């Protein structure tokens, strides 16, 4: 089989879209638990994992960094955000207005990622013609 880097960006974009989907689920769960005493908000931090993975290779082009990126290091999960912090007497640290802003921001990011993946495949299709 021919080893080509044609899908390098697609692999990274796919992991970013997966993380964005997970973040959307976390935010929806946060909103659903806004009145649950003691609940701590959950979030996903894909950006730090991507920055760390791409930062492992200094003095290389972005294409080289993306080609060398290990997607196993880009698999992230949910974490408890500011678990020791609560501005409410019931111990809950969810602010519904902030969550709605995060939700809108994340939905825009997800749509941008899907558009980028689509564009990558359109480029491949154009090359194959």
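^ Assign residues to that structure.
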């Amino acid at each position: 089989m021919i080893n080509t880097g044609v899908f390098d960006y697609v692999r990274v974009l796919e992991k970013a879209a997966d993380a964005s989907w997970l973040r959307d689920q976390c935010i929806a769960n946060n909103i659903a638990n806004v009145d649950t005493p003691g609940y701590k908000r959950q979030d996903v931090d894909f950006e730090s994992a991507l920055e760390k993975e791409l930062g492992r290779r200094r003095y290389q082009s972005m294409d080289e960094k993306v080609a060398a990126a290990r997607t196993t290091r880009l698999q992230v999960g949910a974490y408890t955000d500011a678990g020791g912090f609560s501005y409410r007497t019931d111990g809950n640290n969810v602010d519904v207005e902030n969550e709605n802003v995060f939700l809108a921001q994340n939905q825009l990011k997800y749509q941008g990622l899907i558009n980028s993946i689509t564009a990558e495949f359109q480029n491949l299709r154009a090359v194959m013609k």
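The chain has one domain: 8-128.
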